[in-house]
Design a protein that fits this description.
This is DUF4369 domain-containing protein. By secondary structure, the chain is of the alpha+beta class. The protein has 6 helices and 10 strands, in the order αββββββββααβαααβ. Strands 1, 2, 3, 4, 5, 6, 7, 8, 9 and 10 form a 10-stranded mixed sheet that branches. The longest helix is centred in the last third of the chain and has 18 residues.
Length: 215
């Protein structure tokens, strides 16, 4: 009966702890807890939560899938411990049978340093992402600004559109936006780290969505 009450209480808060793993970073003890819950919109979400003692330090999305009969999006994440650093990786992909909402697509890498006192500090965050800054049903993101991620903008208007896009993405994703070779390396690294999850979660997407997908 007590166990049932505990589960009921956890469900009322919308999150249930699945399991915890102990980490030792710079001779400091942490726990990574995997939790399962729902977003405000009712989509299931798995998170990775970092704890030191009873204090939650940060939360990272491990899996979040949203969509309907036409649109499907996926966010995947994982972590890696190396020396005194804890790195989180994120990947986004989207498909739409109507070809209207294939956003977001991209990758992010966040690196945290753990000092000798157990303090966790973000020292690097980089992102490359193709997303919308307005309703794609009213504008064309590819023509308005996304094309300038691969094609050099020429006019002042085009340069302003690109700069505005980058600033909004850096704010939204809390990371520095990268271009060129740095972008290529970031995409390769994150896709390599999350390869197995990506393969499972996006299996059959190209067949289902055809050209209307960003992977």
């Amino acid at each position: 009966m007590k166990i049932f009450k505990l589960v009921l209480i956890l469900l009322m808060f919308g999150t249930v702890a699945a399991h915890a793993k102990t980490l030792s970073i710079n001779q400091q003890r942490f726990e990574i807890k995997t939790t399962h819950g729902e977003t405000d919109e009712g989509f299931e979400q798995d998170n990775l939560e970092l704890y030191r003692g009873d204090k939650k330090l940060l939360t990272h999305t491990q899996r979040l899938s949203t969509g309907d009969c036409s649109i499907l999006t996926i966010e995947l994440g994982d972590y890696e411990v190396k020396n005194n650093q804890l790195t989180f990786y994120s990947y986004w992909a989207a498909g739409d049978r109507q070809g209207l909402w294939t956003f977001p697509y991209g990758v992010r890498k966040q690196v945290y340093l753990v000092d000798s006192k157990g303090m966790v500090k973000l020292i690097s965050a980089v992102v490359y992402v193709e997303d919308t800054i307005s309703n794609p049903l009213e504008t064309n993101p590819d023509q308005d600004y996304l094309q300038f991620l691969t094609i050099q903008p020429k006019s002042p208007k085009d340069k302003l559109a690109l700069n505005n896009y980058i600033q909004q993405m850096q704010t939204r994703y809390k990371a520095r936006f990268v271009h060129g070779q740095e972008r290529t390396q970031l995409i390769k690294e994150v896709k390599s780290k999350l390869a197995s999850q990506i393969a499972v979660e996006t299996k059959g997407w190209k067949e289902d969505f055809g050209q209307n997908v960003r992977l």
